[in-house]
Amino acid sequence: MASPQTENGYTRIANEILEQIVKTNLNGTQLKIIMVIWRYTYGFKRKQHELSSSFISESLGGKDRKNVGKELKNLIERKFIIVVGRGKRGANVLKFNKNHEEWIDSVGCISTAEQGGVQLHGSTGVQLHGKSGVQLHPQERKKENIKKIPRKQKTYDEENTYFKMAVYFHDRVSKVAQEAGVGHLTKKANLQKWADEFRKLVELDGVDKHLAKKVMDWVTTDSFWKTNVLSAKKLRDKFGELAIKMNAAQKPKVNQVNGNIEKVAHPNDATRDKEIEFQQWIMEGNDPNEFDWS
Questions:
Q1: Range of the domain at 258
Q2: Does 107 reside within a domain?
Q3: pTM over 0.85
Q4: Does any domain span residue 96?
Q5: Integer Cα distance of 164 and 151 in angstroms
Q6: DSSP for 225-275, written as a single string
Q7: Per-residue buried b or exposed e for 51-86, using 16+ beta carbons within 10 Å of the residue's own CB
């Protein structure tokens, strides 16, 4: 027979929080996620802790990780949970937002500020003009939405491939920056924006992920580029040029002297011609690794 005792540990929650949380429109999974965060923060007498979606999923009895990630993202957007930063293991450091006046409930009248000047009546769902409160015609409502509602930025959880690419590159450039005495340049990097740059690099620019990793590894060791490319945006902007430089630097260059083959540097004009050919090769959609440098 189970017999839990406070002597064996307990979690302190303010009564005001409990009174307010039961009034919110949270589904079962969302409420359980909040309870897990309470357990591993307040339960250990701390305000925040590094918690991954996988860990939370396991704490909920093995619930689907993707669904847990989706519900956690919803709680963050609605300001129940705050992302403090990134922990040592690459997961987000989370804390519960005890200021319940900042919570955004999905049911009821949504504030004008949250909807960019457009209100929804809580009971009827009729859209009202933010200033006058006059009901909008469907055509006017469409125009109002186009003008006022801001575009929502895409977010990535710590298990997302693009987020992992961002973490990998950030760790490498942070080491370079620290060694160069400019660690402050990468300390406050927004990894969500970095992840979005890698998504664009792969999905919009058509760059292979393996090639992207090779360039990341090379650029953070090259004597010139390692201190000139300290962000995902700069990497994407310069990617074509960096890929060319990397292949040119890594390709063996040979010349025949007195019947013997010796490694020598290409003349500048020959190297330049090959780099132009390589750039054209990539623009035609070919595999960079199959380019003939001979």
A1: 161-290
A2: no
A3: no
A4: yes
A5: 24
A6: GGGT--SHHHHHHTHHHHHHHHHHHHS--EEEETTEEEE-PPPHHHHHHHH
A7: bbbebbbebbeebebeebbebbebbbebebbbeeeb
**pLDDT tens digit at each of 294 positions of the chain:** 888 888 888 899 999 999 999 999 999 999 999 999 999 999 999 999 999 988 998 889 887 888 988 999 999 999 999 999 888 888 899 999 999 999 997 644 343 334 444 444 444 444 444 444 444 455 555 554 555 555 667 889 888 999 999 999 999 999 999 998 888 888 889 999 999 999 999 999 999 999 999 999 999 999 899 889 999 999 999 999 999 999 988 776 555 555 555 555 544 455 556 666 777 777 677 777 777 776
Residue 144 within a domain: no
Domain count for the chain: 2
**Domain membership flag for residue 147:** no
